[in-house]
Write a structure and sequence with these properties.
Elements lengths: L1 H26 L6 H4 L5 H4 L7 E5 L3 H17 L4 E6 L2 H7 L7 E4 L5 H11 L1 E7 L5 H9 L4 E6 L3 H9 L1 H8 L4 E4 L2 H10 L6 E3 L14 H11 L6 E8 L4 H12 L5 E7 L5 H10 L4 E3 L16 E3 L6 H6 L3 E4 L12 H4 L5 E3 L7 H10 L2 E3 L3 H13 L1 H18 L2 H10 L3
Parallel strand pairs: 1-2, 1-4, 2-3, 4-5, 5-6, 6-7, 8-9, 8-12, 9-11, 10-11, 12-13, 13-14
Helix pairs in contact: 4-5, 4-19, 6-7, 7-9, 12-17
Length: 429
């Protein structure tokens, strides 16, 4: 009865969904890719899979795609005879996933409209489906189960903020959750929460967080110098990268920067809005505050020096976050001074770069707590704290080194989730 009602509702919602996706794509200057979202994949694309058995991994957007990278590498190593297909929901997720050498094919995830789901599954015929984090679609899970395809939830989590919402709609999620072959959750708390929402306790395990398994290394001076040369940043500057910033947050970052450059004339800011389509909006803010800047798309990769202290590199591209953290001396991880739930502190930590973050880390609470426990970063409760924390790190190379080394130790100690995921996958493939 649930699935009958859901499919009737999906017919009425299809037009608004199409309109929304069309608006989103046009406003961001990207094609809507309706053909793929309805399950029609070009034969030339499918030829990349050939007759090999397919492992299908779905990662909604950028964060999930980056978290999936260690698992993709392990899948390629353990199953060299299989084709690996990666799907995404967002355009930015697709752009990141397309760059992964481990994948054979990258597509958009179909709308959860029954004909679209059936078309996609019929063309791909996967042997196993892996869904990253907590992406639950009733038609997709039911159709895959009806075809005998195991579905595994990988790196699953239920944040504090979303748990209450999931509980209110457990009648919606329960039928789909019951169809997962196994749900691999990050922590025991996540396991308990997903069971409360409707997952089977016998098929739910806590295996750790894949994000701790991203490759980590201490950035050496030669690597840092090469990266700075690529972006036109002088080697003698102290560089802070403010990554994945959101509306209302850039004002705090730029105000702190303006105050600090009056004291430290060799200080330099790399500003990376979470959504690059906001570049014009952020550029207007920079002009309003009287800060000299250049956009990433205007910088040639010739090694010509383009900046000096007190200027700003405004990044209006995607896929460069790790390089930007690597060339930095310290990092601020955005989405944390405004109530959006925060972003991934492990990216700078994996490079030995000390990080600062705000109090709003609901989506990454476990990681934020571990960063503080290991002394790998600094929590700035207010905008004034952000300024003070930056000042402390600018003036002490020793403090930067200690926090960076602590971050690398944290990554080593907390790893191992990839191996545990592969153990689960091997039982179903």
């Amino acid at each position: 009865m649930f699935f009958f009602a859901y499919n009737i509702l999906s017919i009425f919602l299809l037009v608004p969904v199409i309109i929304y996706h069309l608006y989103r794509s046009v406003s961001r200057g990207r094609p809507p890719a309706f053909r793929e979202r309805f399950g029609y994949i070009h034969a030339a694309e499918l030829a990349r899979i050939g007759e090999r058995p397919v492992i299908w991994l779905h990662a909604v957007s950028v964060g999930e795609a980056i978290a999936a990278r260690p698992l993709l590498k392990a899948l390629r190593e353990h199953y060299p005879g299989h084709a690996i297909l990666v799907s995404n929901t967002t355009e930015t997720g697709r752009a990141i996933s397309s760059s992964f050498p481990e994948k054979d094919l990258c597509i958009y995830f179909p709308f959860d409209f029954l004909p679209a789901v059936r078309n996609t599954l019929h063309r791909i015929r996967p042997k196993l489906i892996i869904i990253m984090e907590t992406e639950i679609w009733p038609n997709f899970t039911r159709e895959a189960t009806n075809r005998g395809i195991p579905i595994i939830l990988a790196n699953g989590r239920v944040s504090d903020r979303s748990f209450s919402r999931y509980l209110k709609f457990d009648w919606f999620f329960r039928p789909a959750l019951q169809m997962f072959s196994c749900l691999c959750m990050q922590t025991e708390t996540d396991r308990e929460r997903i069971i409360a929402i409707g997952a089977s306790p016998e098929r739910t395990v806590a295996v750790g967080n894949l994000k701790y398994d991203i490759p980590s290394h201490l950035v050496q001076d030669e690597e840092k110098a090469g990266l700075r040369g690529r972006y036109g940043i002088p080697g003698n500057l102290t560089v802070v990268t403010a990554g994945s910033t959101h509306p209302g947050e850039e004002e705090y970052v730029l105000a702190a920067y303006q105050e600090l450059v009056t004291t430290f004339n060799n200080f330099f800011l790399v500003l990376v809005p979470r959504h690059p389509e906001r570049a014009n909006e952020v550029a207007a803010l920079l002009e309003q505050m009287g800060l000299s800047y250049r956009r990433r798309t205007a910088i040639k990769t010739s090694g010509v020096i383009a900046f000096q202290g007190g200027m700003v590199l405004l990044v209006d591209t995607i896929g460069e976050m790790m390089d930007l953290y690597a060339l930095s001396d310290l990092a601020f991880v955005g989405g944390s001074l405004v109530p959006t739930g925060g972003h991934n502190l492990l990216e700078p930590a994996s490079l030995g770069i000390p990080c600062i973050f705000g109090p709003n880390m609901d989506n990454f609470r476990e990681i934020a707590d571990l960063v503080l426990q290991y002394g790998a970063g600094i929590k700035a409760e207010t905008a004034a704290d952000l300024t003070d924390s930056c000042r402390a790190l600018i003036t002490s190379a020793e403090l930067r080194m200690v926090l960076g080394q602590n971050g690398l130790k944290m990554m080593r100690d907390a790893g191992g989730a990839t191996v545990r995921h592969i153990e689960v996958i091997s039982r179903h493939l």
